[in-house]
Amino acid sequence: MGRAKRARHKADAADIAGALVVASFIGRLRARGLSVREAVFGACRRRVRPVMMTSLTVLLGLVPMLFATGSGSEIQKPLVAVIFGRLLTSLALTLIILPVLYALVNGLGPAESNLGSSD
Which domain covers residue 34, as residue numbers? Predict the structure, then answer.
């Protein structure tokens, strides 16, 4: 297995792990009785560091391949650049889009966000 292919597999694992960490923690907070809003915000606050560290570790491992000059580097560089960009995009999706989608699917709308306010 080539270096670029191994990097792609590590990126896949980081993508899946990050999403699972956030989603499972939201589920755990919901099981404790928190509202959808509290669970989503709480999970995002508490799980930003583990998700970021997982993705950044893989990204740092790809940096030498981006600047490689040896044989085969002209083929590896574009692939590694794509994997690098995909990991950055996946990180944003995991930390921004996943919580928003979770909240929308589980009923956090304008009606629920006003429940906590006193009239």
Answer: 3-64+72-108
- State the pLDDT confidence band at 119, using cuts at 50, 70 and 90: very low
| Within-domain flag for 32 | yes
**Residue (of 10, 30, 29) closest to 18 by Cα position:** 10
C-alpha to C-alpha distance for 25 and 8, rounded to whole angstroms: 26
> Which residues touch 104 (CB under 8 Å, ≥6 apart)?
none
116 part of a folded domain: no
Asked whether residue 79 carries a pLDDT value surpassing 80, the answer given is yes
Assess if residue 80 is contained within a domain. Answer: yes
Do the beta carbons of residue 58 and residue 14 sit within 8 Å? Answer: yes
> 20-55: b or e for each residue (b if 16 or more CB lie within 10 Å)?
ebbbebbeebbeeebbbeebbbbbbeebeeebeebb
Model confidence, pTM: 0.66
Amino acid at 68: A
Span 17-30, average pLDDT: 86
In a domain, 113, yes or no: no
